[in-house]
Structure formats: C-alpha cells, structure tokens
C-alpha cells in the first residue's frame, strides 16, 4: 500500500456523476440501430442521479481501504445495455494495481485471520444489514449496468446479501475434529484454518450475487480477497465494497481491481501470496485459470458453463411444467449458467406443452428493466445478440421451426424476442452449446432412458430440471442425471443454504451452504506425542 501515490487516491465518485450529467457523453454504442424511446433514456438518467447522490457510486479500484486510480489513469466505459448510453467511466487497472491489491490483502490476512469467529461474524452481519438497507440503490445499479428488470435486480440483492448473512452465521461453526489415536501416548487433532489470500473473478450476469457467494465464505473463514468483477458490470461490485468499508471491515480485507482481465488474472496466478482462485465464468477462461494455477499449486473453485436439460415427461402437470420452464429459461433473459438450454419433451405431451409454452412466452413483456411490467430486459451487448441469431440460423437451416419470436425485438439493439423453437435436434448448436439468450429449444423424446441419454450427452454438468408427477421417476432420473443440481417440478432452485456447483466440465467445488466453507479452509492435522510421560 505504501507504493500507492497519494494523487491516485480519492474518495470522490465524481467521474460517474460527470458522465451521467453531460449529454455529450451519452453516446450510443450502435449508431445504425433504431433509436430507443425517450422514455427509456429518461428513466435511466433519473435513476443515475439518485444513485450519484447516494454515495455508492464509485469509479476507482479499492486497494488497502483506499479508492485509487490506475497508475496510468486509464479508464474504461460502462454501458447501460438497454440504451447503449455510457453510465460511467471506471479505472482500467492491470498487473501493477493487482500486485498492490495482493500485498494489501496479504498484510490484512495476518490480523483478519486472527480475529475470533464471533468478531468476523459481526463484521459480516453489519455488511449484510447495509446491503439490505441499500437494496433499492443496489437493485437500480444492477439494472443500470446489467439490464435485468428491476424486480429481478432487487431479488438478486436479497439473494446476494443472503450469502453474507448465511456466512456470518456459518463463521461460528468451523469445527475441527479429535481423532481416536491408534497409539496410547498420542492425541490427534484436526484444525481448520483459512486458505489465505483469495483471488475472486466474477462475471456480469449476477453483478452482486456472484461476488457475495465467494467473498462471504472467504471472509467468514478468515481469508482476505482481491475481487475482479466483470468489466461490463463493475459498479455494483464497487458499491458493495464501499458498504463493506462502511460496515467497518478493515482496510485490505476486501480489495477490488478491474480492467485488463488477462493481466489481472496473470498477476493473481503468478503470485505466491494468492493461495486460491475462485472463478465464475466461461469454461474456456476457467480452463486457462486452472492450468495457470498449476504454476504455484493454488487451489481453484470453478463455476463454469452449463447446458441444462429441462425434461418434461408425459405425466407432468402441464401448468407446473410451463411455469417452471418459463422460470428456468427466461430468468435474466436466459443469461444464467443454470438456465434451461434444452427443453426435452416426451412425445405424448409435446404438442400441448409447445402450445402452452408459446402462449406463455407471448405474454413476456420486453423492454428497459426500469419500465414497470417488463420481465425481459436486453441482452448484455450486441455480441450476445449476434450469438443468439447465429444459433437460430443454424437450427432453422437444419430443420427447426420457430413457434414464437425468432428475431431481434422491434426495440432493436440488444433486445431479442423471447423465442420458442421446435424440432430441435442434438446436432444443432442450440443443443451443443449454451445459447445464453431468451430461446427455448424443444427436443422430442420417447422413453425415459432416451431422455436421460440425451440429457447426459454433453460435457457440461451444472443444472438439470425434470417435470413429472411420478415420485419413483423423480428419484430415478435425479440419480441418473450427471449434474450438480437437479430441480424437480421447480425452475428456480438456487439459494444460499444449498450447495451450488457443477460436475464434468461445469466446474469444481461448491458455493453456498455449509459446503461452501470447505473451499476456503485448509485441514491441518496436529499430533501430540509422548502424552503419557509425566
Ligand atoms: P463471460 O462470457 O460470462 O463474460 P468470461 O469467462 O469471459 O465469461 O468472463 C468472466 C470473468 O472472467 C470476467 O470477470 C472476465 O473479465 C474474466 N476474464 C476473462 N478472461 C480472463 C483471463 N484471461 N484471466 C482472468 N480473468 C479473465
């Protein structure tokens, strides 16, 4: 921290306010796209003004408890995906700043890890209280930089804060063991101790919750963290970090750097002071990090891509299946790694289900996440829309049929119509890869065995859903699915009290629940010898 130049340090969030209020900065990303209505733009602006008054808007990185610029003062722009407007210009950091952050996390580790569990618990509880007290502003910030409808964003704040509350409690339950000794003069103990400094790399689809479910257990165990949020959504991370300071969490325990992702990643990987990398994001980047962690033999937790099957059996309750599929597929406009990616429907219920789902999808209101009644926001950027378009083109060229949607929304830019597409086959891109958009591809199957085979025929293994009223089948199929989480007659199953994580190439480790603590603890065996001598 002593390497930080005073001139880089500031407590003002000025850059944000300036950008929001100077019309010349309101640039559109896609000049050729149809203009959005004025209504949308004004909503976002009034939200931004409220946010900049709240003090939670930060544009600099957080290192050792100080808000700092990048050494070269480079910045990067954060866009509102619904309008293409620039909402902020934040510090664009790299290796040097990351090394500073690692040093301060390392320094802070010595004292943070020595606090009692009860003391750490109280800090976390205060942080949770502040996150909830600022739920409205944080929700607005999420909608502003990520695009999801405000109601969903508020739900994310409650969900995300829930990890801090849960781990505030769990901090007090890090039990060790006493092992019956095979030798009379020895006593054998197992201690659980914090791993050390943790590098936490997170994506844009849950700008708050993906951070809290890593940082909550890390801090509870006594670790300190360097957070690298997505460059697309750093503002929520910075606001949450500001609240951690307000909660009294000591300087250096929580650090945030953002900017050049490969450079930041490489610095975290190269450092011998960083003992663990926890990552949520693409499988490709996860594999790179896992390989890179080998250089210093770091521990890794990875939450990577999924290819979730949603299996609807003939004996399912149609309404429950439609409602559940809608939730599993269209939440966050299809941009979650647990979103249903393939909807496998048994032939006896196929037509009825396809009609009912298409009808339900017609009612999903698309628009700016700040507009009342909107349940489908924009995709994160135009590249995401192009990816969806290319998957749809591929499917149609191979014989699939659009039942609803199937093209960009009339709002243009990043908006895509919620889509149902039938006659999808295993060889199509829609079945092979994550579409990460509002598209429900329907595949037909005949038997339970065929459904299980289709469902497991992928390298991914994160979430799966089944809809059936047959209890034996619900157990049988849940056990046969090669997935880390299974929803039976439910489309949204994530909660801080249950373990979340994948098998196969969907990742390593679990987040949430008591199991989430294990990721940040080392197991130490202590042997007391010569215990019978006086
Ligand atoms: P997504 O497609 O969801 O954006 P990514 O895996 O590209 O998934 O991004 C997830 C997170 O990983 C983001 O914070 C991103 O900046 C970061 N990231 C991307 N490339 C690297 C890298 N080479 N090293 C470290 N982090 C990276």
Describe the structure.
Helix content is 39%, strand content 19%. It is an alpha/beta fold and 534 residues long. It has 17 helices and 20 strands. It folds into 2 domains: 273 residues, Aldehyde Dehydrogenase, Chain A, domain 1 (3-Layer(aba) Sandwich), CATH 3.40.605.10; 193 residues, Aldehyde Dehydrogenase, Chain A, domain 2, CATH 3.40.309.10. Helix 2 crosses helix 5 and helix 11 crosses helix 12. A hairpin with a 7-residue loop joins strand 5 and strand 6. The N terminus is likely disordered. The strands form 5 sheets. It has a 7-stranded mixed sheet with strand order 14-15-16-13-12-17-18, with helices on both faces. The termini are far apart. The structure holds adenosine-5'-diphosphate. Adenosine-5'-diphosphate binds next to helix 9 and helix 10.
Keywords for this entry:
succinate-semialdehyde dehydrogenase (NAD+) activity, single chain, alpha/beta, mitochondrion, Succinate-semialdehyde dehydrogenase, binds adenosine-5'-diphosphate, oxidoreductase, Aldehyde Dehydrogenase, Chain A, domain 2, 534 residues, Aldehyde Dehydrogenase, Chain A, domain 1, 2 domains, EC 1.2.1.24
């Amino acid at each position: 921290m002593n390497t930080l130049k005073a001139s880089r340090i500031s407590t003002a969030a000025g850059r944000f306010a300036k950008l929001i209020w100077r019309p010349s900065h309101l640039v559109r990303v896609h000049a050729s796209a149809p203009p959005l209505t004025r209504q949308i733009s004004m909503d976002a602006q009034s939200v931004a003004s409220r946010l900049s008054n709240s003090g939670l808007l930060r544009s600099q990185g957080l290192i050792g408890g100080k808000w700092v610029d990048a050494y070269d003062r480079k910045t990067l722009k954060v866009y509102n995906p619904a309008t293409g407007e620039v909402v902020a210009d934040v510090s664009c950091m790299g290796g040097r700043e990351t090394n500073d952050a690692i040093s301060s996390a390392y320094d802070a580790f010595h004292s943070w890890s020595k606090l009692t569990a009860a003391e750490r618990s109280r800090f976390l509880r205060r942080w949770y209280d502040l996150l909830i007290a600022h739920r409205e502003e944080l929700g607005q910030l999420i909608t502003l930089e990520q695009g999801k409808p405000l109601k969903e964003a508020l739900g994310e704040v409650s969900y995300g804060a829930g990890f801090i509350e849960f781990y505030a409690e769990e901090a007090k339950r890090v039990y060790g063991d006493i092992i019956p000794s095979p030798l009379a003069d020895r006593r054998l103990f197992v201690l659980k101790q914090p791993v050390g400094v943790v590098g936490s790399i997170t994506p844009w689809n849950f700008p708050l919750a993906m951070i809290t479910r890593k940082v909550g257990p890390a801090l509870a165990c006594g670790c300190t963290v360097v957070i690298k949020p997505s460059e697309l959504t750093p503002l929520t991370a910075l606001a949450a970090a500001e609240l951690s300071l307000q909660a009294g969490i000591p300087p250096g325990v929580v650090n945030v750097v953002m900017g050049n992702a490969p450079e930041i990643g490489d610095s975290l990987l190269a450092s011998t002071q960083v003992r663990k990398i926890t990552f949520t994001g693409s499988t490709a980047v996860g594999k790179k990090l896992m390989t890179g962690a080998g250089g210093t033999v770091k521990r890794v937790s990875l939450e990577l891509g999924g290819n979730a099957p949603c299996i609807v059996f003939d004996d399912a309750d149609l309404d429950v299946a439609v409602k559940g599929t809608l939730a599993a597929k269209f939440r966050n406009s299809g941009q979650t790694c647990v979103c249903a990616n393939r909807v496998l429907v048994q032939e006896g219920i196929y037509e009825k289900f396809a009609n009912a789902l298409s009808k339900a999808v017609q009612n999903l209101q698309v628009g700016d996440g700040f507009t009342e009644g909107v349940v489908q926001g924009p995709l994160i950027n135009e590249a995401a829309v192009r990816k969806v378009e290319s998957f749809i083109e591929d499917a149609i060229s191979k014989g699939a049929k659009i039942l609803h949607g199937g093209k960009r929304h009339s709002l243009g830019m990043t908006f895509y119509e919620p889509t149902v597409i039938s006659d999808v086959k295993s060889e199509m891109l829609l079945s092979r890869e994550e579409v990460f958009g509002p598209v429900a591809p329907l595949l037909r199957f005949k038997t339970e065995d065929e459904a299980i085979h289709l469902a497991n025929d992928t390298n991914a293994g994160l979430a799966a859903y089944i809809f059936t009223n047959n209890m034996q089948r619900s157990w049988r199929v849940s056990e046969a699915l090669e997935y880390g989480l299974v929803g039976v007659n439910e489309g949204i199953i994530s909660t801080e009290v249950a373990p979340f994580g994948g098998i196969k190439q969907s990742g390593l480790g679990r987040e949430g629940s008591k199991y989430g603590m294990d990721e940040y603890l080392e197991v130490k065996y202590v042997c007391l010898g010569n215990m019978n001598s006086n």
